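anyone seen this seq b4? input:
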Amino acid sequence: MFQELTSRFENIFRKLKGHGKLTPENIAESMREVRRVLLEADVNFKVAKDFIVAVEKKAVGAEVLKSITPGQQVIKIIHDELVLLLGGSDTPLREANLPPTVIMVVGLQGSGKTTFCGKLAGYLKSRRRRPMLVAADLQRPAAVEQLRVVSQAAGADFFSIPTSTPLEVCRRAIGEARQRSMDTVVLDTAGRLHVNEELMQELEEIKQTTKPHEILFVADAMTGQDAVNTAQAFVQRLDFSGVVLTKMDGDARGGAALSIKAVTGKPIKFIGAGEKVEALEKFHPERMASRILGMGDIVTLVEKASQAVDLQKAAEFEKKLRRADFTLEDFYEQLQSVKKMGPLGQLIKMIPGLGGRIPQDIEMDDGAFVGVEAIILSMTPEERRRPNIINGSRRLRIAKGSGTSVQEVNRLLKQYEMMRKMLKQVGRQGRRSALPFMNF
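predicted toks r here
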């Protein structure tokens, strides 16, 4: 997410920090580089221009604090302006005074609306809400079945009338939600390959009839300014209340995220970064600005850890670390916690000072976990508890049982022993990690 953008900003900041004294000349030079970075990231031209003007105005007239260098002062100004550009503060979902809350999801075909509906249902359920997904997309083949599948994955209720009209489906769904005691109705509406009058009329009728409390526009972040232009068309006709950026785990340059709030005036409420139901994040402008500038996002990282980790098991594991007697069974449990938190590459980038320093040609392959799990699960309980008893014949059996090679088994055992020794040394120094995956 924003890896190229982060890398370019870090290069600019490195030059800024190299100046013992800031002058209008070197500030202007830095701002030219920032403008180039923004435009290459496909940020709207006017948005980029206004951003540079705002930063230059504050940077030239800024009083440098004694506790920080002039370069750090400019970096802070860029960070603060970036937060404002992204929305200033996070905007929560609206709720109805009398349930159900109606959320209408709109966007072009292929933007990820249906997948987002499933993720939103999972998000709501984790907050003790009772969502019902409504199949109002009767245009695209298999759209109803796709929503049924994602609703099952999220554990949410589902409603559809395939032989009816989208308007009638939405109208009857609200009454059905009241009967089922559902407190949230999510309307998965139809999209098209491009904005057209037929689509807009259909969506306007649904809006007028259901009077949704939220209208969320789903945009594919990988399409850059095309997503922003489409958002402009939708906001003029529907006046949607918030934006959802999907496919943020792909090759998104960042232009849509940095432009869409300024262009539409509507806040980004969620970002999707993966296909799994749990791969949905509430959008926080300040946290996202920190990520873009290579400062990490430790708050989101801790939140993910708290949701994925069993606190009692974590306490037990901490005691084992102190005694340096953790086993491969413990290692396997920690591996499961890491997987629940999300893709490894995304987690690494949230660690302050580390994410932007990972070379772009190095991929964080979550598929590597599969082989490790297979090897551990091919061991007997006794072998997991006492890896030192694994001799040559046992290694051959484990390799055959896991579909791997003896070399891979040897590598895992060697890494385990190295980590065990490292943690023993860390324990002696009185340090401990606050996050489970950092124990390895």
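Residues 101-293 form a domain with the Rossmann fold fold (CATH 3.40.50.300). The chain has three domains: 3-85, 101-293, 301-439. kinda curious what u guys think
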